[in-house]
Design brief:
The protein is α+β, with helices and mostly antiparallel strands. Helices cover 37% and strands 28% of the residues. It is flat.
């Protein structure tokens, strides 16, 4: 499982040795680098995309599979997660000595219209969110090239995670509101749903611009 960003892999879909890394996600914990990364690949012949999970994540799932094997159900779940992470490595093997193909498919996000001045905004930062190695969607930080207006968009997966979190807090907060503790949960739920609504508004206020 090489971490070489310049490696070329065989595409599981078309069979061509033209799959290259288009985005390298550096994994952090509490703002500190872990030294590992999750890499997104794309075949430059057919556009097929796949992700190579970080090696520590696969090792952790494998250990949990062994430790929870006695419970059957737990062992089965983590065995499936391990296989899911390992399969892209097996199905898309490294092709030693293969030349780098011409880049046709990139990892760029679409340009959007600035709600402040009507100019062009470009994505400056993409963040992949995880909780205990479980993917929780992406966030995209945009900035206008003219007026420097900035805003953040969230992926469908990120919005779904926030909606689930807000709903969970509501379910806890409503029954316990009479004892005072519920107010804290309701306040947290309001923050979740507020950010959720603002993210949807940003999608409408900053529409995608056609490619030049």
């Amino acid at each position: 499982m090489s971490a070489n960003a310049n490696e070329v892999r065989k595409c599981a879909k078309c069979g061509q040795a033209t799959a290259v890394c288009i985005r390298d996600w550096q994994v952090t914990r509490f703002g500190l680098s872990t030294g590992s990364s999750t890499r997104d690949f794309c075949c430059q012949s057919c556009g097929h995309r796949f992700t190579l999970a970080q090696v520590p994540q696969i090792v952790a799932f494998g250990i949990l599979t062994v430790l929870l094997a006695i419970t059957l159900c737990g062992g089965f779940v983590f065995a499936c997660l391990t296989a899911y992470c390992v399969w892209p490595y097996v199905a898309n093997p490294v092709v030693p000595g293969a030349p780098m193909p011409p880049v046709r498919f990139r990892a760029t996000e679409p340009r959007r219209k600035c709600a402040s001045c009507g100019g062009v905004t470009t994505c400056r930062l993409v963040t992949k969110h995880t909780v205990n190695l479980i993917p929780m969607g992406h966030s995209y930080d945009y900035a206008c090239t003219a007026c420097r207006h900035t805003f953040r968009l969230r992926s469908a997966g990120r919005l779904a995670a926030m909606a689930l979190g807000g709903s969970f807090l509501l379910l806890i907060g409503v029954p316990t509101v009479t004892v005072g503790l519920g107010l804290i949960f309701l306040l947290a739920a309001a923050v979740y749903w507020g950010v959720f609504a603002w993210s949807l508004a940003n999608l409408l206020r900053h529409p995608v611009l056609p490619e030049a």
